[in-house]
């Protein structure tokens, strides 16, 4: 799409959505919670009652902040997502608003349209085929356990973690996803992350720090890594090194649902292949936008806004505008977001 047409379309969309959006409120920290050793229905803070999750599943998520559902997405759907990703890499399709990213070790002069050059695509809300992932009934059935019935798809990614070049740039620093989001409450947001093939420590599986979702949002910034860091790969600057870690070994179709305050990351890809996963962050449509100016999120907000301004050729775009554009209702009705 021509940049001028894209900018005009975005402006019209944002004017329409602003009329429907709720006002902005000031950010506030999420306080920690007490022990969850003894559970009663009225004590559940992170899950909702809808007869999908078993009591044991709810207890596990409440305590740990993540839950793996085995074999949730079919091989046929994963193959379709893989095929569409390859078409995007070959530039056969160019969905509006999509960001195509390459590893920091790949110079612009080396870039040719190829799956081997793309480490991630994000914001695929305008790609009908990839966005099907966000509407799969088997995914939304579980998402509703965390968000309630009015569900927004807010952030979409297909990750193609490359074999590490030796500079360890394929790893992702430990972080909390809420750092990137200007909306709350955090307990009404959840990520669905689906393995598109076998994933283990060798090719860079997710690593999570169980129970850290019960804490607050920590300051993030770029880690001081000698080999370089990929764009927007912010990490927590100070965390408890003694906190237990769990490496999530997953098979194709397995899906992990996790809280946006859960500290997680991924190691480098030591294999010779590309490690693929597809994900979406969902939120309750009743969530509200916050003002991140003056908070620990201000640094990433500036990056996101600057990138969007360059992409759409707009000078007065805001963080709220960016996320309003990204969001899509996938179940129920659009309310605040």
UniProtKB/TrEMBL annotation:
The gene is PHYH. One of its GO terms (cellular component) is peroxisome. The keyword Oxidoreductase applies. This is Phytanoyl-CoA dioxygenase, peroxisomal. Its EC number is 1.14.11.18. PANTHER family: PHYTANOYL-COA ALPHA-HYDROXYLASE, PHYTANOYL-COA DIOXYGENASE, PEROXISOMAL. Transmembrane segments: none annotated. It is an enzyme of class 1 (oxidoreductase). Pathway: Lipid metabolism; fatty acid metabolism. GO terms for biological process: fatty acid alpha-oxidation. Keywords: Dioxygenase, Iron, Metal-binding, Oxidoreductase, Vitamin C.
